[in-house]
């Protein structure tokens, strides 16, 4: 039975996975050593010194015990190269000479055709500009300029830099001879219409060309720096079908792997800074290309990083831009640090003057906290040599320090402030506490009513129709973790309602006590659900048995979703295959969960008693949770003095416990 993932036929995905062995695919990027039936190495997706990245040849999957990344060969290519699923499949298919079709039987839309032509035009234009820089007399002055700025031939190749000659129709003729629709090219930002309305001219003339790529590495725009004098000094492609400057970061495609590994991005203002920092060893740098940082930029960084180091120019404009970027990044859930560059220097200037090693050591590694940066920036506006200036600075600095949640941090900054303004620490601390009280006091009529009631919290059940019911929950229903394992475990060792997690998975896989002594502790019901899925992934008959008796009634939403997709997978008359099943999910959260489950060290043999024990444990959990809820009701009734109600609830608890 044939299905399609997106618009890609299942047969194509199967062929790609067959032709691309997981060990060979991963081995191009990770040094693997054999350990028993596994291959191990250092994870390319996060920094580590002890190998926790594991490849399993017989199951054709990889999994990192450190960061949780896992999947098959397609997933690895997606993550390591920053590709979408269709892009990864297409590239891998072409590498193996597998016919690739990305169609659902629907005709390609005019918009899709136009997008495809523009991408091709940008790709050819990029190569054309690069050729002109490296191989023609037109490009010699630009080449000498770049080398004088420390951008060597290796960097020119790395960033695919080019040059647009000082002529009106170089690119116009190039595109016209290749039968591109010039009106379409103008709409896409490659060329400009003449002011007279008669014909087209090159948009970039006498400029060094820096290609701007999307996250997949495809060129979608250009940035041009004028060679010599003239205005504007920097010119970007206009926004188009491909290019939205509020959603694109320069070099994100190349930096993505380093950002993911370090969990940190360095944010610059321009592409020159990114290139200079790359040569200095900072390969997790991206830039906003002179435009203001947006919420979309911050969200884009958040997909691969936990922390951002803002490294803007040292002048007033750069520092003010850094101040504005901090709340945007913090609201996206990112930790923020700020590089303290000397006044008047940008990162590119600093590197050329002081060298890359000093830049890394003194600017990147010594980046300041946002509080230190705010105070340092604030201090510039006051004359600390005068008593009135010191007093005014202290008054302005105190609200910044008082807003800190940590008492330790507040004390450190208050002591520093005390020495700077020559005011006693105790006086500053007293003023800080007064400010905190004022900040926490609600405005009149705005008293805090307490947390709003949001209804009962549900662990969620699937709603399958029949053994392989196709009407289970949607993938989006499983995005939030609403399982009940957060407040207390109810497994064999957990102790009812005690809140102590037992390594219940060891009850089902005893050998893990020796092989995985540091395993995260799991509640009993989660361990049982993981074992059920482990056996279901190995044996279709086990899945049939669980489908008939439990369906999708898993307490953990992720596992309920996996079960639903697994039932559907087997309903297509598929044989057990973890790698192919992972491809059918196309959901990163579920892919990681399946990869983790497949890597469990446990017996693959099963019988009905084994499955029944697990099913019983899964079904027991909501009942135990109900008992716990009743106990809380009984305690509240006793506190309120309603002993009759408390006795009634106690009887209900006894009845539930007998069940």
Automatic annotation (TrEMBL):
Keywords: DNA replication, DNA-binding, DNA-directed RNA polymerase, Magnesium, Metal-binding, Nucleotidyltransferase, Primosome, Transcription, Transferase, Zinc, Zinc-finger
Keyword hit for Transcription: yes
Record Gene3D superfamilies: 3.40.1360.10, 6.10.140.360, DNA primase, catalytic core, N-terminal domain (3.90.980.10), DNAb Helicase, Chain A (1.10.860.10), Zinc finger, CHC2-type domain (3.90.580.10)
Zinc finger (CHC2-type) stretch: 43-67
Domain Toprim residue range list: 263-346
Highest taxon of source: Bacteria
BP-aspect Gene Ontology terms: DNA replication, synthesis of primer
EC number: 2.7.7.101
UniProt cross-references to PROSITE patterns, sorted A to Z: TOPRIM
Family of this protein: Belongs to the DnaG primase family.
Protein name, entry field: DNA primase
Renumbered residue ranges of the record's region Disordered: 430-504
Composition bias, Gly residues: 457-471, 486-500
Cofactor, free-text remark: Binds 1 zinc ion per monomer.
Domain writeup: Contains an N-terminal zinc-binding domain, a central core domain that contains the primase activity, and a C-terminal DnaB-binding domain.
Regions annotated as coiled coil: none
Role description: RNA polymerase that catalyzes the synthesis of short RNA molecules used as primers for DNA polymerase during DNA replication.
Self-association and partners: Monomer. Interacts with DnaB.
Entry GO CC: cytoplasm; DNA-directed RNA polymerase complex; primosome complex
Gene name of the encoded protein: dnaG
Cofactor: Zn(2+)
SUPFAM superfamilies registered for this protein in UniProt: DNA primase core (SSF56731), Zinc beta-ribbon (SSF57783)
GO molecular function list: DNA binding; DNA-directed RNA polymerase activity; zinc ion binding
Keyword Transcription among record annotations: yes
């Amino acid at each position: 039975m044939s299905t399609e993932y997106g618009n890609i036929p299942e047969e194509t995905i199967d062929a790609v996975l067959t032709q691309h062995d997981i060990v060979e695919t991963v081995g191009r990027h990770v040094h693997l050593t054999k350990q028993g039936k596994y291959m191990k190495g250092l994870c390319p997706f996060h920094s580590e010194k002890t190998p926790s990245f594991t490849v399993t040849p017989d199951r054709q999957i990889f999994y990192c015990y450190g960061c949780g990344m896992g999947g098959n060969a397609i997933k690895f290519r997606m993550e390591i190269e920053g590709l979408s699923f269709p892009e990864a499949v297409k590239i891998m298919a072409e590498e193996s000479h597998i016919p690739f079709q990305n169609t659902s039987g629907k005709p390609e839309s005019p918009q899709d055709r136009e997008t495809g032509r523009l991408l091709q035009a940008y790709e050819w234009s990029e190569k054309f500009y690069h050729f002109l820089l490296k191989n023609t007399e037109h490009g010699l002055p630009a080449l000498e300029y770049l080398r004088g700025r420390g951008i060597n031939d290796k960097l020119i190749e790395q960033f695919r830099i080019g040059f647009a000659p000082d002529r009106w129709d170089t690119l116009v003729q190039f595109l016209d001879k290749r039968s591109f629709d010039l009106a379409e090219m103008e709409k896409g930002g490659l060329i400009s219409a003449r002011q007279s309305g008669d014909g087209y001219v090159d948009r970039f003339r006498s400029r060094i060309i820096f290609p701007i790529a999307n996250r997949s590495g495809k060129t979608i725009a250009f940035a041009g720096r004028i060679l010599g004098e003239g205005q504007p000094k920097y010119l970007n492609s206009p926004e188009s079908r491909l290019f939205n400057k509020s959603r694109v970061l320069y070099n994100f495609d190349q930096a993505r792997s380093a950002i993911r590994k370090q969990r940190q991005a360095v944010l610059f203002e321009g592409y020159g800074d990114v290139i200079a920092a790359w040569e200095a060893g900072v390969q997790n740098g991206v830039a906003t290309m002179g435009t203001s940082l947006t919420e979309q930029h911050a969200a884009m960084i958040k997909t691969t990083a936990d922390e951002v180091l803002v490294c803007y120019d040292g002048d007033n404009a750069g520092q003010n831009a850094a101040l504005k970027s901090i709340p945007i990044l913090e609201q996206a859930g990112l930790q923020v640090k700020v590089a303290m560059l000397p006044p008047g220097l940008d990162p590119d200037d600093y590197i050329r003057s002081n060298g890359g090693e000093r830049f890394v050591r003194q600017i990147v590694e010594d980046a300041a906290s946002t509080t230190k940066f705010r105070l340092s920036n604030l201090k510039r506006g006051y004359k600390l040599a005068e008593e009135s200036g010191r007093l005014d600075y202290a008054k302005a600095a105190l609200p910044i320090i008082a807003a800190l949640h940590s008492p330790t941090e507040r004390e450190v900054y208050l002591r520093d402030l005390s020495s700077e303004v020559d005011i006693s620490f105790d006086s500053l601390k007293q003023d800080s506490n007064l400010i905190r009280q004022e900040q926490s006091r609600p405005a009149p009529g705005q008293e805090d009513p307490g947390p709003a009631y949001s209804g009962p919290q549900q662990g969620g059940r699937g709603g399958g129709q029949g053994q392989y019911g196709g009407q289970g929950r949607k993938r989006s229903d499983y995005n939030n973790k609403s399982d009940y394992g957060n407040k207390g475990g109810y497994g064999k060792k957990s102790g009812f309602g005690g809140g102590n997690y037992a390594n219940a998975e060891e009850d089902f896989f005893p050998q893990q006590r020796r092989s995985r002594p540091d395993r995260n502790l799991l509640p009993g019901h989660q361990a049982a659900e993981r074992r059920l899925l482990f056996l279901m992934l190995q044996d279709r008959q086990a899945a049939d048995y669980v489908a008939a008796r439990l369906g999708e009634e898993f307490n953990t939403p992720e596992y309920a979703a996996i079960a639903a997709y697994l039932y559907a997978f087997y309903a297509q008359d598929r044989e057990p295959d973890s790698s192919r099943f992972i491809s059918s999910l196309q959901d990163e959260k579920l892919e990681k969960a399946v990869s983790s489950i497949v890597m469990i060290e446990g017996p693959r043999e099963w019988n009905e008693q084994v499955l029944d024990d697990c099913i019983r444990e899964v079904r027991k959990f909501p009942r135990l949770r109900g008992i716990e809820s009743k106990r809380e009701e009984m305690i509240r009734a006793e506190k309120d003095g309603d002993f009759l109600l408390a006795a009634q609830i106690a009887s209900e608890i006894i009845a539930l416990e007998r069940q």
